[in-house]
């Protein structure tokens, strides 16, 4: 009895104590049920002790279920805070700071899953329903996840917040990836995917070298411009938040050469087998790779590991403008609505290049010496390969061309109005070219029609659905939209304005080395090459330029393996195998190797059987690029399904989509008809110096009947008439009005409950 009284007094004292982070352990909702679990009684030690001391042994265990109380969640929170230091930035949240909240929430989720023996369904569908604002978690929840008040405005925010008024983080930067199918983690919550047999999957590198050798086929009419536009759009859509090298902020943390106690906890190295045909020549046993940061969910809800996208999901040309207001300001001149450029060829009368990257000059850039600089653009990977730099340059020039044209028509518009209107038109052009030229080549007419992706020829398209999340899907980012890696050529060609081959350069020599563009006229020659060089076939063959030489250091004879990266990323995301996605897309699945014949070449099936234990183990990226293409499409049915689903979300879930009526951002009917004239060929004609003839659709090889080359000045390729933007008022957009209608006040964003 004395012992019981002593324990009760100790417990009462503990209950009244403030924990080390400044709030009482007991919340007003403490003993309430946060989540009721069905089935036989399961209880945490914490809940058991609380109810024992109260004399009500687990009152929520009615024999048919168990309750996880808010007190139990608070106890897990306090325990996790002992291990995890959560960042509390005063202004913008950096990815590594946001990750500390993600780590905390994941730690709490793992504790609850282990303590209560939670099933897959309870982790995926139960934990995320808990209202964590009733727990101590509210102390650390980032303001933009805790609740934001939105007001519709004419112009998009750079960070994508408030695109959806009711769900402010949908499609915003730093939001978690969506999932089409629940994740398959080895432990049900966090560890990378393993085989359905319970054993390890084959090394990513073994899959790469066995399934994706360099055969170099060409079997379609797509040009390298398909890859150029595809990568430009990929960098508009997605960049996974990962730990970065503290010096150049780009390469992954070094993992392979560090002892275990000095490795970054996110290290997930790609192992190289001893008999590797290439890497054994250089005694390479391992390639550095780090896992993506865990993401907080909106409302700081609990659940299995999710990764986050540091870019906005919607198509908003953040490749040109960035995803932060402060960075966008840095990219601007501050007058005439113009973007900063580098007038390096002014004396020759040629157009400007992108500005020099002077802060952290080694970020994403391999510099042969300290006097060489890469370029600065809206997206950090602008220098990842020279072709991509060309696309960034093209669209930055287009912005300035639009701003200059609008200024000539509307003399009274100030810098802010000119910038925002030029940006709005430029984004609409990117959206139109993507859905009018890129997707039809990629997906084919039948898939476009099935998923509602065909653009209207006239009038408005009233298809906005506020219940559709335009955020990026994990299987799109981690596998399907990486289809372009199959199309990559071994060398990138330069052609003359007369459409004659000049020279080529190995792809690996152009990665993070865009210096050729500092030679006058060379950018135009690369654009001519993009329109005339055929892309590799869409198949399981991948050039060694990216399977053995990716991000090769200066003077090195080997680099990294992009295909291994693709599979390692998919596994650490917990993305289910290829067969699960065939099932999701309504396609036949296979439980034996014999059943796979027909969906891909026989030789491919035999090779899969030699390294995987079961068809269900095949990685989504590997299976997707190995499928036979659909008629009229560059893709097989699984990737076509995933990409078309994503593109449907991006169109239907974007409140600023260019075809929409009745929005503050809507174009007039006359302006919309002008936007519909936009073509990639016109962008190239208007924003290069020497090119005077192009095929009408540059993503397809020229053909004198169906895709003829025409003079830029012939009038056959239409131009947007900016006079439709004539504003006969006498006021520009007052900056204070702009901030009121479009910007969430910083005080609100940084407000803490």
Structural key phrases:
753 residues, mainly alpha, Myeloperoxidase, subunit C, 3 domains, two-stranded antiparallel ribbon, 25 helices, 10 strands, globular, iron, Peroxidase, peroxidase activity, heme
Structure description:
InterPro entries: Haem_peroxidase_animal (IPR019791), Haem_peroxidase_sf (IPR010255), Haem_peroxidase_sf_animal (IPR037120). This is Peroxidase. It comes from Drosophila mojavensis. Heme b binds at residue 485. GO terms for molecular function: heme binding; metal ion binding; peroxidase activity. The chain is mostly helical and 753 residues long. The chain has three domains: 33-141, no CATH class; 173-185 and 192-220 and 241-313 and 472-489 and 538-626, Haem peroxidase domain superfamily, animal type (Myeloperoxidase, subunit C), CATH 1.10.640; 319-460 and 666-725, Orthogonal Bundle (Myeloperoxidase, subunit C). Helix content is 35%, strand content 5%. The protein is built from 25 helices and ten strands. The chain has helices spanning 2-16, 45-54, 70-83, 95-116, 120-126, 143-146, 204-211, 224-237, 318-321, 325-331, 386-409, 415-443, 445-450, 474-478, 522-532, 544-547, 562-572, 578-584, 602-611, 620-626, 637-652, 669-675, 680-686, 735-742, 746-749, and strands at residues 33-38, 65-69, 175-176, 270-271, 286-287, 308-309, 491-495, 501-506, 693-695, 709-711. It has a two-stranded antiparallel ribbon. It has a two-stranded antiparallel ribbon with strand order 3-6. A hairpin with a 5-residue loop joins strand 7 and strand 8 (501-506). The longest helix is centred in the middle third of the chain and has 29 residues, at 415-443. The two termini are 44 Å apart. Mean pLDDT is 85; it is low at 1-27, 48-62, 538-542, 545-554 and 731-753.
